[in-house]
Write a structure and sequence with these properties.
The structure is a homodimer. With about 260 residues, chain A is of the alpha+beta class. Chain A has helices spanning about 15-25, 40-45, 50-65, 100-105, 125-130, 160-165, 180-185, 205-210; strands at about 35, 65-70, 75, 85, 110-120, 135-145, 150-160, 195-200, 220-230, 235-240, 245-255. Strand 11 of chain A pairs antiparallel with strand 8 of chain B. The structure holds a DNA duplex (19 and 19 nucleotides).
Amino acid sequence: MELPELDPADERPKHQQITARLRQAIESGSYEPGERFPGENTLMTRYQVARSTARQALAELIDSGYLRTEPKVGTFVRDDRQLIRKPRRYRRTKDTGPFATDARGAGLSADIEAATETVPADQATADRLNLHAGDQVIRTRYRFLANGRPIQSSTSYEPAALTLGTLIERPEEGPYAGAGVVARFDSLGVHITHVTEEIRVRPPRPDETTDLQVPRGVHVFDIRRTFTTDSRPVETADITIPGDRYALVYAFQVPDDEQDPATD
Amino acid sequence: MELPELDPADERPKHQQITARLRQAIESGSYEPGERFPGENTLMTRYQVARSTARQALAELIDSGYLRTEPKVGTFVRDDRQLIRKPRRYRRTKDTGPFATDARGAGLSADIEAATETVPADQATADRLNLHAGDQVIRTRYRFLANGRPIQSSTSYEPAALTLGTLIERPEEGPYAGAGVVARFDSLGVHITHVTEEIRVRPPRPDETTDLQVPRGVHVFDIRRTFTTDSRPVETADITIPGDRYALVYAFQVPDDEQDPATD
DNA sequence: TAGTGGTCTAGACCACAAT
DNA sequence: TTGTGGTCTAGACCACTAC
């Protein structure tokens, strides 16, 4: 792959010109995903620039998701990310929660780490569960692994007044371990009818970068999910998913009537 | 705000130590959103490092969404971005499309730019619409502005065989201009019953950075939406939304029966 | 041992905004 | 006029890998 030298008439900064050329080369398919890419030294000599200029050009492509570096080894075209389609819907069946269902459907092993505590609710959590700050809630932190690789983490909150002393007090223990939230609450006679998911996207926090092994240039989905019965919220959770591993899929019906149900 | 000097015993690189201290200062509220932040020169003298090291520390905080720079002016704490909750739902009513409805509901002006062409479908688009590559499709590119600010762009595709020669041939002209997709197709007697949205998160492409004014350190939602009747897809669109302005909200009912509708 | 990316220094010139 | 961030150069040392 021959790349022309920089055009002195181009008004853009050198690093931008290099970035543009390299991006074009990647998009035109000159490099295969996973293939070794010209490193800092190569770019220095090819474009006659200082190392930091070559480095800056590469950094932009890393932050844009085109490249990744492996320290002491080299620079590579990022692999075509294998996105798992994650249909986000909730059923009343008991067998397994949605994560395990998705993973096994894709032929992956599914492991779930969970840790449960009873803690007083902070104001934000209390608001989401229609409680008062300080009321006791069951907090469970999860980490989900597919084929041994962390792929999702979440923290869920349930009012202690509802579940404490029942068979589902600790979500990952007892007869309903691994079942979905809807099935677990059904076992108490608490009938969940609605779920709301609010999706944000943001850079990973430092702890998420390590826990979920999020590479540079990747952001995360931040989902706030709340389950409600006809009268009250009964579970709320914050779910964090690296953006290079999942596509979220929502499928729903378009209502038949002209009525505005004033959902908001 | 006094910051201690670097700890020589700390094994982390200097730029990481500086980043960690600065992030802590921001999160603890030592700087207000929008407030001026110590610049490269200040950090150089305060921590006794070279300019590029100070610069690298700041770059990490910019990419993490904490700071923004204004060339020739300074470095500032990023404003608490007020997220707009964007309910994603579709109704059958005619009056206005969901974008205009939501924007006006939030007290914003809504402007839509649109350009329509008839083009042959490429393979990917043909697959999404159950057509053959080369079949004619109506492609419309949109840019949505709220209070004059670009906030969403999209490209939609409809089979020309369905709409060519009808009143809704060009989505943004005729009696159904500005109406939602469902209402437009209803006018042809084509009854949309389902919609699927597939959400990804990725860095903006260079053209999106300018068109949508996406700042560094912000990624975008990439939504592939497809409307279908009971028998076939009739419209598909790629929607791009900057991740720092919107939270997507999905609200739905949990089905009552144990049946698995095998939606996928 | 040669080559890699990560870290770091010590300079320089620039255009422009603020004062 | 002063200070800002943006760009760029020309070096250096490091730990580690296997090009």
